Each structure stands twice: as structure tokens, then as C-alpha cells.
Amino acid sequence: MDVLALERTGEFHGRYHVLKGALSPVDGIGPDQLRLRELVERVRAGGITEVIVATNPTAQGEATALYIARLLQPETSVKVTRIARGVPMGSDLEFSDQVTLARALSGRKEL
User: Fold this and answer.
1) CA angle 68, 22, 91 (to 5 degrees)
2) Is 103 part of a structural domain of the chain?
3) Which of 73, 54, 60 is nearest to 31 (CA)?
4) Bridge-partner residues for 80, per DSSP?
5) Residue 60 belongs to a domain
6) Which domain range does residue 67 map to?
7) 71 domain-assigned
8) What is the mean pLDDT of residues 74-85?
9) How many domains would you assign to the chain?
10) Which tens digits make up the pLDDT trace of 12-50?
11) Residue 44 lies in a domain
């Protein structure tokens, strides 16, 4: 479903690598339960210049994103980026939580 959501934007024209979950030690989901080994193999095979991490903005998603960044760090020619996070369109600032607002502020762009 996440791939379909990304596809509907029409903004991404690359290839996807679906992990089939996120790290969650409480639920018994570690690196071996995700498709991380396959991701590293694809990157090492060449032809990939950037890996865009699009995990959910949850504790598990954040942990997974950081794990992927560290896992791919030795692959110096590959840039690892994260999709932006922040205040959604159509919402009011007064109803946003502190973490969301803080991320929106740190990821701001010049107009």
C-alpha cells in the first residue's frame, strides 16, 4: 500500500525496495526478518546513486531508517536520504505535536 501511495504522487521515477516491515524488537522483528540483506546486495551490485528511506514516522520507522543509514554507510558512493516530515497540508499548527513541529522547523526550505 505504501508503494501505491508513493506512485500516486507521480514524483518518483526510480525503483523500489520494500522491506516488508520495520524493526521492532518488542514484536520480535529484527534485521533478519526484513529484506535488508537484499537491499545491501542491490546497492553493492552498482547503478544506485541514492537510497530514499520512506519508513513511517514512528519509533520503529525511525529506528529502521537509522539502521539502514548505518548499514549503507560503507557504500560511500551511495547517498542515503529520508523523505521529509512535518505539518501536513490542510492542518492547523495548534493541533500539531511538538515532535512534528520540531521536524518541520528543522526541515524548512527557503521560499
Assistant:
1) 100
2) no
3) 60
4) 51
5) yes
6) 2-85
7) yes
8) 87
9) 1
10) 999 999 999 999 999 999 999 999 999 999 999 999 999
11) yes
